[in-house]
């Protein structure tokens, strides 16, 4: 009869072969038994086993099986590897134990790539993405590029691109191979204010090893966007070519500003500045009834003109851009340096289905394929290279469609559960929010109490009801919540709707959020322009109790009040009901004159052999 102890042991899982081997290798490594090779780093010696190293590392397998005398060496010196890094690598191989920190992860990733230990490379690579820095980004860029590690490559490129000018003087930059350098020079997102920075980087790289690299100069200069250089900058380039690089010379063409842009292939990211573009309604009034919100009246608009201005929040100054004539009550959204304006009212108050694109680098408007449905006062939002036009008048307010910015085509998407207009809208984390507003086709007329949320991925709408009564408000996404401002809201007595200056937050679920204070607006206003610039929420224009509002205010989280921007809107008659505004990237001042000039002049467009 077996004892209780034997019964307990019989129920235990037997040790697997893998576990047995791991335990045995660990014990032999710790006891330094049967070791047949020594790795050396920084003079420190580590005795280990050829069989284990060769089984997990193609690098060691080739080294140990090569038909060369070095393959039988008892000691292998690993140059440029810290002893602490090698110790961690060996601990991982023998025990699977690995402690990653911000300090050691980049070195472990480098060692894993060098020794071709793929499991360690993957673990350290996932960790190091969050710890790419100015000090290690160039090394990680070259390493991830040579070992085809997309996550680390993307993180390293992001850091290099944002710090290209200071990094271009580093030893690591000068050590890049020419293919890695060309990949950098071709990037649109380099944060350089002038193409001269790119030219100087090429010059430093070539001059560091001139005998080897001078033959590569012409190929490298093919990635410099010469049409973006001013006359003064070109003078420096010409002087260099005449003095140092006589085997190449500049090519010239006669171009205007648009031609410069086309010949260069576009601006780098650092050549743009981000600010606020605003389409207001200048000098408008009606010849008939004041009820301009009605779809059935026959009133006529005396003047329709939508001048376009750009506001620099840093300098608090306005600049005039190319006008978009004959539209108002349109909706707009931006993607990078391009602004898109859809729908609105045209001449004679006809609702239109047009879509226009403004390119700030050329200061020109282009008409794109029209929407399937005419719209005004509608939601117009952008998410991942698509534009979304939702609801609005003059139809039943239920239709919705999306525009593919790559294919330049419209496609229908799921319709909201019911029509709605005069609402606030925002996009947050792949979801479109329709907040408040008038329900269309409902008798008697009723306000949407709550929100409609459209999940882009699933193409499904969800209604989120709650006891909130408001319409003609504005909204903007702020971190993980939505800030809703102004509009007509429930009065203090709770019996009717009045113009309000109240603001509140909605969470991602569309429900009222009390996460942080949000002060009331300075004035009571309906349908103001609202957007986020950096860490600020801006409110521009709108319609107040006494007519159009021409002020601009902003609020930063943590502040107890809104801050008034000096000067306000650029014209005393520029305030508008339902203004159209968005964040837009525009060329910085030094490039504006070059790109917006209409006269033709000689422009350097590349280099050729001399």
Describe the fold and architecture.
There is one protein chain. By secondary structure, this protein is an alpha+beta fold. The chain folds into 2 domains: 29-131, Potassium Channel Kv1.1, Chain A, CATH 3.30.710.10; 269-592, 6 Propeller (Neuraminidase). Helices cover 27% and strands 28% of the residues. The strands form 11 sheets. Strands 7-6-5-37 form a 4-stranded antiparallel beta sheet. Strands 8-9-10-11 form a 4-stranded antiparallel beta sheet, with no helix packed on it. α3 packs across α4, α8 packs antiparallel against α9 and α17 (257-264) crosses α18. The longest helix has 15 residues, at 17-31. The radius of gyration is 32 Å and the shape is globular. The model is unreliable at 283-303 (pLDDT under 50). Keywords: Kelch repeat, Repeat.
Helical proportion, percent range:
25-40%
Shape-level CATH architecture of the largest domain: 6 Propeller
| Residue-averaged pLDDT | 86
Quaternary structure: single chain
Keywords: Kelch repeat, Repeat
InterPro entries: BACK (IPR011705), BTB-kelch_protein (IPR017096), BTB/POZ_dom (IPR000210), Kelch-typ_b-propeller (IPR015915), Kelch_1 (IPR006652), SKP1/BTB/POZ_sf (IPR011333)
Organism: Sphenodon punctatus
Pfam families: BACK, BTB, Kelch_KLHDC2_KLHL20_DRC7
